[in-house]
Amino acid sequence: MSNSIIDGTILEAKVKRAVKRQTLFDTVTFQLADGSLKTIRKLQVANEVAGHLTAGAKGRFYLYKMGDQRGVHGIRTVDGREIAAYPRVIERLMLVLGSLNLAILIAWIMMDGEVRLLPLILGPICLGFGILLHLTGNAAMRQFAADAGPDAQPRPAIV
Predict the structure, then answer these.
(1) 3-state class of 50 per DSSP?
(2) Partner residues linked to 17 by β-bridges
(3) What per-residue confidence (pLDDT) applies to 159?
(4) pLDDT tier at 151 (50, 70, 90 boundaries)?
(5) Looking at residue 148, what is its pLDDT?
């Protein structure tokens, strides 16, 4: 799990698909403050932030990465706008699946007195992963809130 900051301008942002609460970008290309280019593939972005990831957008972009999941969770533009949101679709899905598996396990124990292996394993794994995703989202939003804003000194991108 890591969070990073990119100061620069978006040159290209290709949307792969958009669903109810989040947008998946195929590629987003940034021109950094030093003039170099950085392309990031397969970004998951909450729709509140995705609407501002367009070619020509200039400012400070806040990125998160956890395993193979990565995305932009905040933007501070040079004109003073601040937009932040973390996509929590998978987090909620894992918490629901974990709770459902544990409920099924309890129901089977009450009905036939036997412990089924699948819900016993999947329940805690899904709940643990959902909690880990929740903590990652909270850390990303704390990073956005703690940053000094667009007047701060540009930092090199660490992704």
Answers:
(1) helix
(2) 24
(3) 34
(4) low
(5) 61
